[in-house]
Amino acid sequence: MATTTDKASTRDRLLDAATELFYRDGVSLGVEALCRAAGVSKRSMYQLFASKDEVLAASLERRAPEYGRMLHLGPEDPRSPRERILYVFEQLERVSAEDDYRGCPYLSALVELKDPEHPASVVALRVKGALTEAFRADAERGGARDPELLARQLTLVFDGASARAGAKAETLTGLTTSTATALLDASGM
After folding, report:
1. What torsion do the CA atoms of 117, 121, 123, 129 make, to the nearest 10 degrees?
2. N or C: which end of the chain has fewer CB within 10 A?
3. Overall pTM surpassing 0.85 (yes/no)
4. Are 10 and 40 in contact (CB under 8 A)?
5. What is the C-alpha separation between 73 and 147, in angstroms, rounded?
6. Which residues of 18-53 are buried (b: 16+ CB within 10 A; e: fewer)?
7. pLDDT at 28 over 80
8. What is the arithmetic mean of pLDDT over 22-48?
9. What pLDDT sits at residue 4?
10. Is residue 161 a contact partner of residue 153, using CB atoms and an 8 Å limit?
11. Helices and strands in the chain, H and E counts
């Protein structure tokens, strides 16, 4: 019988493989390929997760804290709300220049799944909603005329830029920060 440590190790291997493969190859990846990459049997996977959908959702959930840390400054950061918002776009420009960048993993999952009720879509919508909420909170603190609208506009720019850079259709250097700056200026921030 497997010990708790063995199960955690198997679970970690599955989630590590899922994180990499779903991001690189998309959510249509088969269970066999996932298990092969993780070095686990399908039986072991199904002992830990009821379905591939649950593996995908768990891999996105597991990735969320790192994603959030990459984009958001902590509450103790002394930057102004405007600088905090621009920081997100500076980070996007930085990561999008990496060779293995495929776009925002949460947006990719939403676009591929096309089902807001899918377990992975639920996770992705929550993570994307947190980004919009962070924009809204900073826009409100920064005195934007309509913080809600500005947050939605910034999310739209972020997601569009992520998708175009992920598809290698656009180089973002300077483009997203200048676009975000124009939106901030127009909002009175």
Report:
1. -100
2. N
3. yes
4. yes
5. 19
6. bbebbbeeebebeeeebbebbebeeebbeebbeebb
7. yes
8. 94
9. 45
10. no
11. 9, 0
Burial per residue of 104-134, b for 16 or more beta-carbon CB atoms within 10 angstroms, e otherwise: bbbbbbbebbeeeebbbbebbeebbebbbeb
For residue 128, which of 63, 49, 51 has the smallest C-alpha distance? 63
Tokens of 163: 């998708």
d(CA 51, CA 49): 5
What is d(CA 151, CA 73) in angstroms, rounded to the nearest whole number?
A: 16
Mean pLDDT within 130-147: 96
Write down how long the chain is: 189
